[in-house]
Amino acid sequence: MLMPRAGATLRHPDWRSPILRADPDGNYLEQRCEGRSHEPSEISLTRRILLEGLTPTEQASLQAAFTAVDMDVCQRSGISQGLKHVADRRWERLFHSIMTFLNPRQMMIVLYLYRLAAQQQSHTVTLKSNDLLQDFGYTRTKDGGFASKLRSQLHRDLVTLHRTELVYSSVKAKSLRSQTANPKTTKAKIKSILRIKGFAMVNTTRNFNLWHAADYTYELADSYSISLEFTDSLKRKATDALLFPTWLDVRQPIGSNAKNDYKTRLLIYLASRLKWDQPSDGEYLILPKQSVFRNLDLLGSNGSRNNQIFWRTVEELKTAGYLLTAQELPGKQKHHSIQFQINSELLCTR
Fold first, then answer.
1. At residue 323, what are phi and psi to the nearest 5 degrees?
2. Beta-carbon neighbour count of residue 148 at 10 Å?
3. Distance (Å, whole) CA 157 – CA 325
4. Helix%, strand%, coil% for the chain, nearest 5
5. Which of 188, 212, 284, 340 is deepest in the core (most CB within 10 A)?
6. Residue ranges with strand state E in 277-322
7. Beta strands per DSSP E along the chain
């Protein structure tokens, strides 16, 4: 359940506003997600970015920029609106990256990289930027490349996935769901989803700075060497893996904001619940409707709109073959559930 929780939006009721915290090893920009004791799958975690080596001037600039963030506007009208008074592009991009961490586009980048890892049989993969942009369904420009906005977005996504650490407690699903009086406790883990080990530029003499490009400009390296940090599942005999089809459709919705990609959010959520819940007959999942809607960012009082989006998304996953059926089950005090029948030929656990 790590991926859906880590990628929950700013509007999610369990997420707190970002804070700046000083530690002996540097400053952290961090955001915490509170756990739910009555729903063990809703684990607590913190996503954080270490800001090391800041000069006194940069620290003062960071603090001033942080003060200019209007969190109420971010939640009510959108993050870009809440950050419009942050003048320094570096800090504006930094704040935006932690509040939109692991959005559906970044989730699909992660799946794309794990598919590469399976193909290359290594947890350190070589990513060719133009191959990913093409596979994502983006249109090439007249010169055969891709728009600078798309190129810049990919680079910033990769750097965000590299920079942002997840702090969480690694308690396995069975232990958490058990009714024992003394559940097993574990130490906190600190991990990034990936680490950029290197990059390459082809047929150019210009200098490329990984961090400056993410903070200020609109550049992209031609290829990256990337180490995937959650790699136990890549082992042939791994018993804790989710299996997606090799032909996984990674194309991005044209003209749509990543936050509105409900199809990817639901797919990732259901895949995560497969490992957590161990469904009956290997394919039936019964989940609280409120939990499903929270994890899809279907929040607010407009229940009719939320229901329309949800069932339209279900139809999209049925068309793609991941779902066979889905139906709403009535419950006490309007606590309804959704029963999903997963197509185990396309989505399964090992």
1. -115, 140
2. 13
3. 34
4. 40, 20, 40
5. 340
6. 284-288
7. 19-23, 26-33, 45-51, 124-128, 164-169, 188-192, 194-200, 223-228, 242-243, 284-288, 323-329, 337-342, 348-349
Check whether domain 261-350 has CATH 1.10.10, yes or no:
yes
> Per-domain residue ranges for the chain?
261-350
Residues 6+ apart with CB under 8 A from 133: 146, 150, 151, 154
For residue 174, the one-letter residue type is: K
Low-confidence stretches of the chain (pLDDT beneath 50)? 173-184
Q: Is 171 exposed, middle or buried (0-12, 13-18, 19+ CB in 10 A)?
A: middle
**Helix, coil or strand: residue 116:** helix
State the Cα–Cα distance between residues 182 and 168, nearest whole angstrom. Answer: 20
Q: What is the pLDDT of residue 182?
A: 45
**pLDDT computed for residue 185 by the predictor:** 52
The proportion of the chain whose per-residue pLDDT surpasses 90, expressed as a percent, equals 68
Q: 288-294, long-range: CB within 8 Å, 24+ apart, which pairs?
A: 288/39, 288/335, 288/336, 288/337, 288/338, 289/328, 289/335, 289/336, 289/337, 289/338, 290/335, 291/39, 291/41, 291/42, 292/266, 292/338, 294/8, 294/12, 294/13, 294/14
Burial 333-348 (b: 16+ CB within 10 A, else e): eeeebbebbbbeebbb
Q: In the structure encoding, which two tokens stand for residue 15, read together?
A: 């997420």
**49 closest CA partner among 33, 36, 64, 30:** 30
pLDDT reported for residue 25: 77
269, burial (CB in 10 Å: exposed 0-12, middle 13-18, buried 19+) = buried
Are 18 and 99 in contact by the 8 Å Cβ rule? The answer is yes
